Amino acid sequence: MITQFLEASQNKWTKVLIGLAVVLVLCFLINVALGSVTIPFESLIGFITSGSSGQASWDMILSNFRLPKAITAMLVGSALGVSGLQMQTLFRNPLAGPYILGISSGAGLGVAIAIFLGFYLGGFLELSGIGRSWLLVASAGAGSFLVLLIISLAATRLKDSITLLIIGLMFGAAAGALVSILQFFSQAENIQAYVIWSFGSLGSLSWSELYVFIPVILIGLLGSVLLSKPLNTLLLGENYAISLGLNIKKIRLLIIINTAILAGTVTAFCGPIAFFGVALPHLTRMLFNTSNHLLLTPLIILFGSGLMLIFDFIAQLPGMEATLPINAVTALFGAPFVIYILLRKKNLNYAYQS
Amino acid sequence: MSLLETRSLSIGYSQKTAPQKVLQKDVSLSISPGEIISLMGQNGVGKTTFVKTISGLIPKLGGEVYYQNDQLEDLSANDLARRLSIVLTEKPYSHNISVLELIAIGRHPYSNWMGVLRAQDKEAIDWAINETHINYLADKKLYELSDGQLQKVMIARALAQETDLIILDEPAAHLDLYNKIEVMTLLRNIAQKGKGILISTHDMQISTQLSDKLWLFNFNEPVQQGAPEDLILDGTLEKTLYLQDYGYDMIHGSIHIGMPENGTSVALEGPEDVLFWTNQALRRNGIKISQSADTIISCSQREWIVRSSESSQHYTSIGELLTYFG
């Protein structure tokens, strides 16, 4: 009798996941085809299957701009989504997200130091192209890694997860203050460079950066799939999780490292993309009505990738030359969507006890 | 063979700066298959500390804890999760999972890293659901359940964990009488299947009517154990729970809420059920019941007659009767 139930739900979810995957492929094709230059569908298929769309300029656009951006968008969407989910479950807090432990603040501080202090040492603004972007990646990565290190040390000592959350918030505040001090003593061009970094960008990654970005995010996503089962036991509360044989300190550390890898890498390469990581887990739970991590993790990976492709598509509306900052688009279009669904569902019962 | 045995166990807290705070020492207790045992004592006497110590959440201060033949320290977290399951008063953090998903989480110590359920996992879940009679709830979400239903689901989850010993913390808290009786019957049936059940409770019905044994924790005194009836008759229960001042009614197993007596005393006669409730109403109003009193109340199903030397009056309800005494 249970077998019946289980099979029915398994069939249902397999269909949902396959459906989502199909939608994701469509989003990907639309995202790649449309932009300042529209590439016909047949040419696009030709490019994917045989490596040539028939026009050299289209090939160039696709391989150097559209494909890297679409791949980046998918990985960023899924990475921020699953790390947000992990933080929300670990800290039992609906407002938690990938950056709750101060990872983006650490990255921001790293970048600020590179830009503002770099100005005095040799000049950040003089660096161009590849050199400049790798410097940003390295400094943001170093900043978030430092935060990860401190938070992990705290995590092995603390019994209580909520205390950890407060420590993370304090870090964010302190790092933010240091960034303001640096800004205060800097010149306009440097401040502008920093502000532009903080807008976030999906389109700035070259293939040489993607060769690092793709494997790291994929490893992080694999980790999040592996952590789904222990995360499920945390749905019952920490005491129940421990009684089920969960080593809470070890799992907590693994979750933090996993989140830091995902969110830290995204921030290092694309800047701090806010909102998405907090909102996507809620959106997924509401739309698919489940909190089971064994389902939520794959759902968020697929749904997050697709949604980020759509946001990226909006950010660069066809026919327009300029691209809106991705940070603005995710919040501008995401927030009303979340509010609409919340009002329709009346409360947060879908995720938390009322 | 006992499922759990403590030998000269000391429990309490060790602090870095202050000396150890010992709550109980020399605790030697054991629980066998099929037994329901209630752990009782006043707040702060160490019941929760005891439960946390035997479930390995906090270190013991001395002595030994054995699960069958294995020392607690020798068991890995996963091994222990196959010996001991718990039902707490705290509700699950997320209510957006189905009953089936929740019970499946009980298979955590057995399933692989992806949580894929094998045939024996499904059997265990099926058995747990049948045993607790919650088949009709299987595909409901937790937020759709009443408190009583949720409690049965949490017990099913513990059953799915297939442990010989189950510890429950106040299993009937927040439950109405009907659901409480259902949960108690359920626990009785589970015990009959050969499981050991340890309940930490303040509930007199659970401890005295459901349990085979009581473990009574006292401040500065050794732990007392025995059949609930023995501990009631020799006054140990009354002493442990500090009920002397209120008077534990040994015959009915209830506590009298003491009201200062107002000097009036009456004698009572009539059928047992009416007598019992009339008695309770009078005592609540400070009237002493004494068979040698001059005023006599004769009760029958629908009539109360108060006879004194001067008068005789009829009443048709206890509420009316009480007006006689102002």
User: Largest beta sheet of chain B, briefly?
Assistant: 6 strands, mixed
Q: How many domain regions of chain A?
A: 1
What proportion of the residues of chain A form beta strands (DSSP E)? under 5%
Helix residue percentage of chain B: 25-40%
Write a short abstract of this structure.
The complex is a heterodimer of chains A (354) and B (326). Chain A is mainly alpha-helical and 354 residues long. Chain A has helices spanning 2-33, 41-50, 56-90, 103-121, 129-157, 161-184, 188-199, 207-226, 228-234, 238-243, 248-270, 276-288, 293-315, 326-345.
Explain what the structure shows.
The complex is a heterodimer of chains A (about 350) and B (about 325). Chain A has one domain: ABC transporter involved in vitamin B12 uptake, BtuC. Chain A contains 14 helices and no strands. Chain A has helices at about 1-35, 40-50, 55-90, 105-120, 130-155, 160-185, 190-200, 205-225, 230-235, 240-245, 250-270, 275-290, 295-315, 325-345. The radius of gyration of chain A is 21 Å and the shape is globular. With about 325 residues, chain B is of the alpha/beta class. Chain B has helices at about 45-55, 75-80, 100-105, 120-130, 145-160, 175-190, 205-210, 230-235, 235-240, 270-285, 320-325; strands spanning about 5-15, 20-30, 35-40, 60-65, 70, 85, 165-170, 195-200, 215-220, 220-225, 250, 255, 265-270, 290, 295-300, 305, 310-315. In chain B, about 40% of the residues are buried. Chain B has two domains: about 5-245, 3-Layer(aba) Sandwich (Rossmann fold), CATH 3.40.50; about 265-325. Classes of the chains: A mainly alpha (about 350), B alpha/beta (about 325). The interface of A and B includes residues 3, 235 and 246 of A.
Keywords:
heterodimer; A: 354 residues; mainly alpha; B: 326 residues; alpha/beta; Rossmann fold; 2 domains; six-stranded mixed sheet; five-stranded mixed sheet; 11 helices; 31% helix
